[in-house]
User: What shape does this take?
Amino acid sequence: MSIKELEEALSSIGEPKYRAKQIFLWLHKKYVQSFDEMLNLSKNLREKLKENYYISDSAIEKKLISCYDSTVKYLFSLNDGEYVEAVLMSYHHGYSACISTQAGCKMGCTFCATGQGGFRRSLTAGEMLSQLQTMEKDRNVRISNVVLMGMGEPLDNYDNVIKFLHLVSDDDGMNIGMRHIAVSTCGLADKIRALADLKLQITLSVSLHAPNDEIRSATMPVNKRFPIDELLSSCREYADKTGRRITFEYAMIAEVNDSITCAAELCSRLKGMLCHVNLIPVNEVDKTGYKKSGKKSLNAFCDYLNSHGIPATIRRTLGSDINASCGQLRGRVKDAES
Ligand code: SAH
Ligand code: SF4
Assistant: This one.
């Protein structure tokens, strides 16, 4: 809840408004897990809160630490027993956390472990925050950057994600500025347009992964709803309205989307847009059958984009020994359980 919502909730149980800020600080600065820890509240109020409310928790169900680069992958269980994944990465400039916005995903991308595992439910803003808080407590660190690139499609959970962005960047909260947050989407063009109107300072990452409708529709079913032309026109609108550079994610899959013809097609599509292309060798997820592109194809693709006016880089992969990519860990736990 925002401070305003807390004030309204308190009024409805006959409590003064100034308690809202106190409760907000306990939740967002001290990360308390029970109302009993809120020591400056009266016992009576704590009891009322216990009766009417709960505090979201992301309990650590499983934790894997990479022996290469100390990336930590978490499997969390939420209050109702749903599982989500998150990853904590250490960079020279600080800690970056990748968190989930939904348990599962409806979008069904063929290369993605989450997409193949089906949809359970959307997460609340509090559940997104609690993933960050649990990681900070567990590793005794401060997170400086957040990416919404874990399980789920953030823009399919639009209202809760917007609420999360405001809460996490609040001065009285975790105080992580919007410039340090990236939201990744598979391309819900209508929601990209809505987001553009909010003019937030976040980075928008768009998972493009293909230069034309034929390849994109075969790997990303969402493309049938929002074909590339429509998606890219919403992206242009976003860049124009916000003045922010869009990042296009492009997972390189051997013999699917990694030819120079694909690179040329991509260049002509992105021409003139304020953007950057991130090339990622696809993570080989069990059962999908996709293979990652070789170094040679990756470099040739990257060089082609750069020499034709589209800034591109090859993304370094972290945590490759711990199934750190989206949805892989939950998938394994579910397989092991069945
Ligand atoms: N649903 C959002 C955000 C979560 S997925 C989206 O699709 O953008 C985060 C990123 O991981 C996306 O760019 C997605 O395309 C990518 N991804 C999913 N499976 C992958 C895989 N096997 N290898 C590489 N990237 C993958
Ligand atoms: Fe969902 Fe993103 Fe995975 Fe596609 S890539 S299935 S949108 S989580």
User: Anything to note?
Assistant: DSSP finds 13 helices and twelve strands in the chain. Residues 105, 107-109, 112, 114-115, 152-153, 186, 207, 326 surround iron/sulfur cluster (ligand 2) (CB under 6 Å).
